[in-house]
Amino acid sequence: MPGPPSRSGSSTARTASGALLLTGHGASRGNALGRARVRLPHALEVAEQRITPAQVPGELQRLHEAVEAARAEMHDLRQRLHGALNQEAGEFLDLHALLLDDPELLFGLDELIRSGPYSAGYALRVQRDRLAKVFDGMDDAYLKSRMDDLDHVIGRIHAFLHKRPPDVKGLAGEILVCDNIAPSELAQLQAHGVVGIVTAAGSALSHSAILARSLHLPLIVNVPNALQKIADGDVLGIDGSTGQITVNPLPLDLRDYRARLREQAREQRELGRLRSKPSRTRDNVTIALLANAESREDVTEAHALGAHGLGLYRTEFLFLQRDELPDEQEQFETYRDAALGMSGRPVTIRTLDLGADKADRTGLTLSNEENPALGLRGIRLSLARPKVADTQLRAILRASAYGKLRILLPMVSTREEIRAVRRRLAKQAELLRAEGHEVAEHIPFGAMIEVPAAAIALESFIDLVDFLSVGTNDLVQYLLAADRNNEAVGELYSPLHPAVLRLLAHILRVGREHDVPVAVCGEIAGDPRMTRLLLALGLTEFSLHPGTLLEVRRAVRDSDLGELQAAAPKLLAARDRRSIERWIESNP
Ligand code: PEP
Ligand code: MG
Fold first, then answer.
1. CB 22 within 8 A of CB 12
2. CA pair distance 231, 18, nearest whole angstrom
3. Ligand 1 atom 3, closest CA
4. pLDDT tens string 534-564
5. How many domains does the chain have?
6. Which of 133, 215, 367, 561 could disulfide-link 281, Cβ–Cβ 3.0 to 4.6 Å?
7. Smallest-distance ligand from the CA of 317
8. Are residue 552 and residue 526 in the same domain, yes or no?
9. Do 333 and 382 belong together in one domain?
10. Which residues line ion ligand 2, judged by CB < 5 Å?
11. Looking at the structure, do residues 416 and 484 belong to the same domain, yes or no?
12. What is the reported pTM?
């Protein structure tokens, strides 16, 4: 199941047949069997790698291109620095740029490649070790510590040396094992045929995990010993539901693996029968199941599964993995296609939620924030970049002529933010109409509730919105002061904290009192283990990834709303997580 995983911690064990079994957190379900491709973070080639004299010119060129790419990267980063850390971070980058230009470093490298003759990677290693000795011999602690900078610079050259296209191409049918993965890498990896990913760090609630689920790419995170225990070329059997990785499976393991695949296929067939069934409880209450979407494929899947609409279209994914911002026309076509793809069902376009772990490459997000999750993200970023915001609003307004679009603002914390966007929207609608575009008469306008202040003071701005959507992924992290991406506080990050449930119940109650519909679009809405709890709290609108829609529909159809709501007071009186878990267990 792809929702928030059990956090039982990671351990090393053996399968019944004796193969090594590693356990992490299943972040995107699905099974995969493939060869491991281990990507070490900035690890330099250790083994001596000699080349033939004929290969020397090619290897020199490879090195020079990598140095050039590292230089361009630093220049690019330097250009984007602004804000408080500009000076400090800038100084480091300047120093790194100086090191890159240091003839001692480069000349030595060329010489090693020629005289070895060595591969560029190994020459880099030898040169690094030589310089390390020099730094080690220095008395001055400050100068000694400069070796870290040199390591960073060498690491970047090395990364570029290994970023060559054949490296990516060779990935077809392989399982990537790496330290961590950025959302921006995932689609490209899948396009090159990667069948699964295992990361040593990371969290099942990160945006990388959300995107992996959207791509149906099995992902297991937080396997601390993955890089030590898995070698390049090992055969891996991974199960993205349980978080288990079998290293070099033996015949018995392969039999188990095939049996699991058959069981999953049977389960999928059974769920498939619910495609055309209503999402109605046993006592005949219809529950709206809308879909979260990040891509065109999600829209198609949502439609096919009979989703009531799109409850959350994450537009920021259009801005990632590219160097230029998407223009108005490209955005318009994307939103229009989402509207058309849902054939008249509501489609909720969330304005840009860049920032924190969704950093783009276009320079829009700040790269130097000390606390990016508390920084310029979501609606704050849009309001700080009014041109970008207006372009997006225009694209949404133009697309509104093609379906039932709704607008949703992320990370709202003040009344003024909503008013500011409403003003911009009205202005752009007026301009577009004057330019001859058709714009819908009324576009429902909503706010995400993911900042505790917005939840607590909901009554102070609810008059400004037509609907609300609770982003529990962020609400939990901000309410409990536990980073959603940091496994070190994974035990604390739990939607089953009594404070979370009470706040959810409060939001739902205020929504009801003001006749403003409230949905939940965080990952808990897509976790069938949480369905009854959410129904008990009074939720009647879920927005979830299409991948789990049928499982949640099954849970809804197996529930009796009246019974669950009668059991809600006990749930809300719970004093700890264990009591809430017991409530869930006793209301299966
Ligand atoms: C959330 O925070 O719950 C949410 C749906 O938004 P995102 O996961 O994109 O931050
Ligand atoms: Mg959020």
1. yes
2. 18
3. 471
4. 999 999 999 999 989 999 999 999 999 999 9
5. 3
6. 561
7. 1
8. yes
9. yes
10. 450, 471, 474
11. yes
12. 0.72
